[in-house]
Design a protein that fits this description.
Blueprint lengths: L11 E7 L8 E7 L17 H14 L2 E7 L1 H7 L1 H14 L7 E5 L11 E4 L7 H22 L7 H4 L5 H10 L21
Parallel strand pairs: 1-4, 4-5
Antiparallel strand pairs: 1-2, 2-3
Helix pairs in contact: 1-4, 2-3
């Protein structure tokens, strides 16, 4: 059973990101503040749920939360500032997009940088412990998946509709065959060492 709140504050925001380990596309973060009486029996870490359940939960979270924010940080920025900084930046931007200022922030994982002067805590596997982080993980994942489906139309040979930019065998084989696109993260090891690409 996931817990609603970690702190004593009423306006506690959970934040999480999706797409950190991908070879292409943005890293996407969401931030969610849930009301004190929020209950949902299906809601869990997005990785534990089917795509169908995530799709069902997305409008529930958007309608029942006090507020939510989502942000993409794209591959050019990831290549410039590195994936960890890009993930934290995406979370900061998602919190910035909330129309209510949170009193406390809980973050999935173990790395974060202070946001304004708001107290925060990092929680390892937080998306499986707290409802607001789980809700953020679902929004981050569904918004990012939608974006990857859209760019799939432009470059169908990488099958992003299916792999969402993650390093599947098929995705790596397509990189080997077709080279890279403007959506690929050039700072990532796109192919194993023995298959080096000439950029």
């Amino acid at each position: 059973m996931l817990l609603l709140n970690h702190s004593e504050y009423n306006l506690e925001c959970g934040t999480d990101e999706a797409g950190r380990g991908c070879l292409a596309g943005p890293v996407t973060a969401a931030a969610v503040i849930l009301p004190k009486d929020f209950k949902n029996l299906i809601l869990n870490d997005s990785k534990q749920l089917s795509e169908k359940k995530r799709t069902l939960l997305k409008p529930v979270i958007e309608e029942e939360s006090i507020c939510f924010g989502v942000s993409h940080v794209f591959q050019e920025e990831i290549d410039t500032i590195n994936i960890l900084n890009a993930s934290i930046l995406a979370m900061h931007q998602a919190i910035e997009n909330l129309n209510t200022i949170p009193e406390f922030i809980i973050v999935d994982g173990n790395k974060f940088k202070p946001f304004k002067n708001i107290p925060y805590e990092t929680i390892i596997k937080g998306d499986g412990k707290y409802l607001s982080i789980a809700a953020a993980s679902i929004l981050a994942k569904t918004y990012r998946d939608k974006y990857m489906d859209k760019i799939h139309e432009e470059f169908p040979m990488y099958n992003w509709k299916q792999n969402k930019g993650y390093p599947t065998k098929e995705h790596r084989a397509a990189i080997k065959k077709y080279g890279i696109t403007k959506y690929h993260r050039k700072s990532f090891r796109l192919l194993p060492e023995q298959l080096k690409l000439d950029f």
